[in-house]
User: What shape does this take?
Amino acid sequence: MAEPAQHLGGRSATAAPAAIELTGISKAFGPVQANKDIDLRVERGTIHGIIGENGAGKSTLMSILYGFYKPDSGTIEVNGQPLSITDSMTAIRAGIGMVFQHFKLVQNFTVLENIILGAEDGRLLRPALAKARGVLRRLAEEYQLNVDPDERIEELSVGHQQRVEILKALYRQADILILDEPTGVLTPAEADHLFRILEGLKAEGKTIILITHKLREIMEITDNVSVMRRGEMVASVRTAETSPEELAELMVGRKVLLNVEKGPASPGAPVLEVRGLKMVDDEGVERLRGIDFDIRAGEILGIAGVSGNGQTQLLELLGGYPEKGSTVSGTIHMNGEPLDVTGTRSDARTRRKRGIGHVPEDRQTEGLIMDFTAWENIAFGYHDKPEYQRGWLMDNDAIRRDAQKYMEDFDCRPRNCHLAARNFSGGNQQKLVVAREIERNPDLLLIGQPTRGVDIGAIEFIHKRIVELRDAGKAILLVSVELDEILSLSDRIAVMFDGRIMGERLPSETTTGELGLLMAGITDTDRHDPAEGIPPEHQYVETTPEERV
Amino acid sequence: MKLGSLNEALTPILVLAICVIWAMVDSGRAVQGIDSALRLMTPLLLACLAGLYSERSGVFDIGLEGKMLMAAFSAATVAYLTGSAWIGLLAGIAGSMALSLIHGLASITFRGNQLISGVAINFLASGLTVLLGIKIFQLGGRTPSLEGAARFQPIELPLAETLRGVPVIGDLYSNLLSGHSILVYIALLLVPLTWWVLNRTRFGLRLRAVGENPASVDTAGVSVTRLRHAAIAICGVLCGIAGAYLATSLSAGFVKEMTAGRGFIALAALIFAKWRPWSALFATFLFGLLEAIANQYPNLDLGFITIPSMFMNALPYILTVIILAGFVGRAIPPRAGGEPYVKER
Assistant: This one.
């Protein structure tokens, strides 16, 4: 490490030293060039956004800055001093703190223990714990970062866990705070709170680097923004002088439509009728408290809600694999015929035979077997189709032919059906799952978080295919925690909270604000009587006439 | 010490109940038996604590058995050659540490499979001790009997003689607590020490963290590799003491395969104890007690039925199977246990 004074003096007086100055950073993992000759200047006391598609190299770049990876070439300057960051300790000493996308917390430790880990100041814990308690109280007041210091991490909500991560960095006196996709796991309210905290930190003179792929966040909070594409830094601009459209174009390298192009829906007969659906899980918690809704042919019903309010359970139940040990009641009709809800014919296989396609929320654990090839994955769930059989054996050639065709239809890259699923990027993995379900032409498509962790190009594509399926007269149940996605895709929106449907709205007649309130369990008492006593069906019957517009 | 739930208090209560009932039914043999239970517990306790350090740091160690065996052999050999139990102890620790180092290299530095490395260590120790034993002493794998200073002798605790007359307390003190080898007391003292290290020191905090979520330690700027190697080294030292105790205190010399599965019983006790030092004491004492009962009553005559000695001797192993089959409630191992740490964002 170099002596600070020397270099501060040597700098020209015209420009104040930047908080971070990266020059010519390159990093390759095997044949993959994750970062190519990257230059980046982050001014002190600003919020600097770094935006790019998945796999554009944002996280790699920040990991280099935090000493997690060593760059192949290039130099790093922090506050005007050249610095060789060989490990995280060097980065921490230089005042860099990082909040990772996947938190690095010890689940069964208390908040305090997590805060002092690695910064204990001495061999014994007692003084460090006492000191941390005091610092925590001060930080809580200063930045609205309230967390109970003695609570165990596993007892905290995700939003609070994130606060612990920020506190960890501040406790180490970080001057430069890097946040990697911080809002991916937060509710809108939590995200707003986070942004207020970040504004407060900025007001204190701290520098913040925000990595995200959400354009709205960039526009809302950053001062400057840098755009990465395929490992290269393609632009660095002032946020005030750019627009979401321009940034999106820079990110993908061509114009994209942020709004889904879709004509009005022409709904037909009801395809799925769900009445009084209840589910109690094996721990006795009521996950679904009486769900009623219809989906008609040629319409998309979007279910909005903060994750963990029963959407997952609803999807799994409809898909034919409710949680083990749960008890289910209620009725489901598919094309007018009852579906077995609890019996032996309530399994996923029977559901598929009845024309229900299912894109699960988590492609890596439920949608795909990551170590199996693309063509094998494309056969799953449909592997017993007669055209895939050759006597006693499977006709793998037939499957591969289909796989190759589907991958072409969905522009899945690389176009090689012999690669294992794990070798595809997140967006292409999702395309594999969506292709498998849509190409089988289901009457009803259940689709959960269709674009989670998927880049803009793939989002646009998947959205287009969902709308095409609708226009072909199929029914679609869309579950997503992304409000933008729900608003732009759905023909009707139902909001779930605590195992209930709080209400239904038309996308054209509602706002993010109104949906946000419903997602938080607050119903509009002006229009409805107190929500508690009212069975859900009455809450949405009111909107039914409007749907027929 | 904190007994949070009833579950945690169960073992101490069970152990105490066995002792009290035994004392009531057959007081003469009970004192003798519990006394020997303490001695039989010692190698288990040492090995169990050894495993605790290793596994709390996220490295599974089924090589406890092999390390103890290696330590027993080197301790007995060196004690015989030098005539000093203490030098033997150092040799035992060195022998066990050598195997620890292999385990660490294979499973931490080179990120190999921890179970396979452990199995290899067990085989290596089992073969190497016999081979070297035959080569050095030509006694079919045994070492010659140790006498005098080559063995750890029992030590009298202060005031043991004066208190002998006092009923109950004096009796327990001078007959049960006093008169063991120094290694027994070291093992007992290691229990509160381990608790203190784990819960009150920086090293303990980091050790627990690295076993739960190594990434949290890594991103805090602390080396995961170094921490785990340190934990494994402590494990080696404790296994070394355990092995030396077996050969130079409990017995008088090394016999082929003399650990007789104690390393695995210690592992079972570790699970039973849910990876906690005080619980480890009670769990291993329970095993010691069962072994002592089997020794005291080779053919237990209950009046209507006589339990054969084979069954009595098998009791500790039966208990091990029951424990490992998960009849003791849910034991949650350290979350990162068994996984070599690979950096990822």
The interface with chain A takes residues 199-206, 208-209, 212-213, 215-222, 335, 343, 345 of chain B (CB under 8 Å). Chain B has a mean pLDDT of 90. Residues 42-274 of chain B form one domain. The longest strand of chain B covers residues 300-301.
